[in-house]
Write a structure and sequence with these properties.
Strand content: 5-15%
Distance between the termini: 14 Å
Number of domains: 2
Number of helices: 11
CATH topology of the largest domain: Rossmann fold
Radius of gyration: 22 Å
Strand order of the largest sheet: 1-2-3-4-5
Structural class: alpha/beta
Number of strands: 10
CATH superfamily of the largest domain: Glycogen Phosphorylase B
Order of helices and strands: EHEHEHEHEEHEEHEHEHHHH
CATH class of the largest domain: Alpha Beta
Helix content: 40-55%
CATH architecture of the largest domain: 3-Layer(aba) Sandwich
Length: 289
Amino acid sequence: MPWFREKQHHLFYDYCTLIKQKRGIFFQENFNLKELFYLTVAMRLFGKKEDRLWLVFRYDFSMLRGQGRWHRLLLRILGARVQLFTDSALIAQDLAGATLLPIPHMPRCDVIAAPTLPICCWWPGEPREAKGRREIMHLLSHRDARYEMVFSEELPLPPTTRMKSRQLSPILPRSAYERQFSVSDVILLPYDKGTYKSSTSGILVEAVIAGKVPLIKEGGWLAYELRRFGLEELIVDWDDPNFFDTIYPLLFSNSVREKLAAMQQEYIVFHSKENFGKIFMQQLGSGLG
């Protein structure tokens, strides 16, 4: 069976000690370039023939300065003893031999139905610039009685706010988080296309599985995923002065709901915990073979 270790910031000595003392599969995700270097050298010096190093790449190489070159060197140094994973199909295209992993975020699955008024538009998570803080602040200056916007109370209401709004605690218990998904109609995801060029979004997966309409920005992994299912109409212009009028017919479109339902069904199967475990067990079997 594989041996998994929790994510910690060990130095080179700690990696070497760990690999000398343990035997099996060493699993690491969310690492930086220094940790990748230490792990590679420690495995080369102290790894046993049967040991394996499993690495999950969650960010594109342009964001991790030099990691693209290092991963190729890693393969030359360790060969079949290293197995690469990623949860992004875009990263997998650039990462030779990487196995695509599910994103096992599994809320309750709802039927994708037309919304009722007022239409609840939720911007989940922390109000960071990379997640679209500017765009949300801009939308709050609109006025449209058909909508209600919901977001973290960490975002101060701008003086230009005209939209009906409701603010939530920045950290919700899981039950409250799932309840908010249940009462929401639209999930606002104006994520920065640079930051999320190849990186995935668990909230997009949750939104689709929960049967909600995601609205996103052009560029990056989120747009790539919607295009796979012919949902280009949900890639919207967040600076459109008629934003809420423009999206209104989309929310009642039978075509959009049918395509979202197809995406939902594929996501339910692929992004399940069961499929995550199945893929790992397949890699474990092939590694032992």
